[in-house]
Write a structure and sequence with these properties.
With 195 residues, this protein is an all-alpha fold. The longest helix is centred in the middle third of the chain and has 24 residues. It is built from ten helices and no strands.
Length: 195
């Protein structure tokens, strides 16, 4: 196996992911080759193979950055007792959710611009299992019989607003500074959370 570039391995791996994300966003996943990524980093293709043997592995690792943030947020929410305490904590959770997504704005844009490649990731067992687990965890929270129907609907709607504006409709807001968009989303969501 070739030797890795002369930098910290984790740092190099993150640089590869960052450059790949930039290229996937600007020129498209299908039009970006491993050679393009290596050239942008000024490393050999063999050195790139030390970290990632396939372009699909890079895309998966970029996508899993979102999973990691989601799992961490749900860990904190699940640590709070179900019922009134969790309802009281929901606005803080929502604010942390927006704060976690805002730095990933470029990653979310990459997802939207490369939807076909992202859809293909659902064939990956790890990705599929992590997605299903995150969805089930959120569903369990929202299905709680310790919450009123109004609370459950408002909580679900708040998640929907955030994912729609910051992820699904992200390209429509490319011209808006990330912090301004986050503030506007939170203003709308806060209006939903008057339990």
């Amino acid at each position: 196996m070739p030797r890795p570039p002369k930098t910290n391995g984790t740092e190099t791996r993150e640089r590869i992911l960052d450059v790949a994300q930039e290229l996937f966003t600007s020129q498209g996943y299908d039009k970006t080759s491993l050679r393009d990524i290596a050239e942008r980093l000024d490393i050999t293709k063999a050195a790139l193979y030390y970290y990632f043997e396939r372009k699909e592995e890079i895309l998966l690792q970029l996508h899993l950055r979102l999973h990691a943030d989601g799992a961490e947020l749900l860990d904190g929410l699940e640590a709070i007792p179900d019922g009134p305490e969790r309802v009281a904590a929901w606005p803080g959770f929502i604010h942390r959710f927006v704060e976690a997504l805002t730095p990933h704005r470029d990653l979310l844009l990459m997802h939207r611009r490369n939807q076909g490649a992202i859809d293909a990731l659902y064939q990956d067992e790890r990705n599929r299992m992590e997605n299903e687990e995150l969805e089930k965890r959120l569903e369990r929270i929202l299905a709680s019989d310790a919450l009123t129907l109004s609370q459950r609907v408002r909580m679900a709607a708040s998640i929907g607003v955030i994912t729609e504006v910051l992820a699904e409709s992200g390209p429509a807001f490319e011209d808006v500074p990330p912090d301004d968009l986050a503030a506007e989303v939170l203003a709308v969501v806060d209006g939903l959370l008057y339990f």
